[in-house]
């Protein structure tokens, strides 16, 4: 179990650092503030997992962190607040919403309230006070996300609405589970640093970060293939009809969908597709993606100077 925990910490650390640097590069390249906030979130994940790793495997650090928790417990607790703030900023920037001054004051008051809560001598009261403040912020984030789901432009985009709904569902489920663990810990007079629901939430959002990068590459490849079609058509001597057929096949349209769009029979579609495949030197649709990937690689190679 110890070895499993060790390799888990290492894997999450590298994943967090990779995503942080990748989204930071995207921000520098495109100037989209959402990428900056996502990079900051993954940086916080990285700091958090490093602290947990050192606490679990370095006895000297365990003693230091225990001392810090006793003298200034709000230092490590502020990581959770910073993550909540990042979630809010990501939602705000993703849907082009402004940051009103009143909300900034609200977050500052909650942060100060958390600091004050950790000065309460009674352990149970202190933990419950912090939980109340952090729960208010969690509800604030969730309510904003749910409000965005009601926006017509978001609802009309199924993939965007599904991604937001899934992110909110995971967030709510993990936060509820974490609250249950917190109250159980209060009864036992303990407050563990590593809590499974928060680990699950972090892993889920790390996976979401990788999935988004993969989705971006998919869209970029599709866009590149769309620009590639005229080049391939010219290279292999396709007619205008065959070029348009190749474009629709590359988009993944079925024979029936093509026939309905072009007002021709399915048999005619199959004939045009067969002729197109024959000119390209492939046997059928199953080889088309690989063929276009090879052609895209050829087109992207720098030409040698003559």
From TrEMBL:
Keywords: DNA-binding, Transcription, Transcription regulation. SUPFAM superfamilies: C-terminal effector domain of the bipartite response regulators. The keyword Metal-binding does not apply. Pfam families: GerE. GO terms for biological process: regulation of DNA-templated transcription. GO terms for molecular function: DNA binding. This is Response regulator transcription factor. It comes from Eggerthella guodeyinii.
């Amino acid at each position: 179990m110890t070895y499993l925990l060790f390799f888990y910490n290492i894997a999450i650390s590298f994943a967090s650092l990779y995503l942080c640097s990748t989204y930071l590069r995207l921000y520098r390249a495109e100037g989209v503030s959402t990428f900056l906030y996502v990079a900051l979130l993954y940086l916080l994940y990285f700091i958090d997992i490093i602290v947990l790793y050192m606490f679990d495997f370095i006895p000297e650090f365990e003693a230091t962190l225990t001392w810090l928790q006793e003298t200034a417990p709000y230092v490590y607790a502020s990581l959770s607040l910073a993550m909540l703030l990042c979630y809010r900023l990501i939602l705000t920037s993703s849907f082009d919403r402004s940051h009103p001054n009143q909300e900034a004051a609200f977050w500052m008051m909650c942060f100060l309230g958390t600091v004050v809560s950790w000065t309460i001598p009674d352990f149970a009261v202190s933990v419950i006070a912090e939980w109340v403040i952090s729960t208010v912020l969690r509800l604030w984030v969730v309510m904003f996300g749910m409000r965005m789901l009601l926006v017509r432009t978001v609802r009309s985009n199924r993939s965007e609405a599904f991604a937001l709904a899934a992110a909110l569902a995971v967030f709510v489920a993990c936060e509820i589970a974490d609250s249950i663990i917190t109250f159980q810990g209060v009864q036992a007079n303990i407050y563990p640093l590593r809590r499974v629901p928060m680990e699950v939430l972090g892993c889920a959002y790390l996976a979401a970060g990788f999935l988004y990068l993969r989705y971006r590459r998919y869209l970029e490849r599709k866009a590149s293939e769309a620009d590639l079609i005229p080049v391939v058509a010219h290279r292999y001597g396709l007619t205008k009809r065959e070029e348009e057929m190749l474009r629709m096949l590359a988009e993944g349209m079925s024979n029936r969908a093509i026939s309905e769009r072009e007002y021709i029979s399915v048999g005619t579609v199959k004939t045009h597709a067969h002729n197109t495949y024959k000119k390209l030197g492939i046997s059928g649709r199953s080889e088309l993606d690989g063929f276009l990937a090879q052609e895209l690689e050829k087109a992207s190679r720098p030409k040698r100077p003559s």
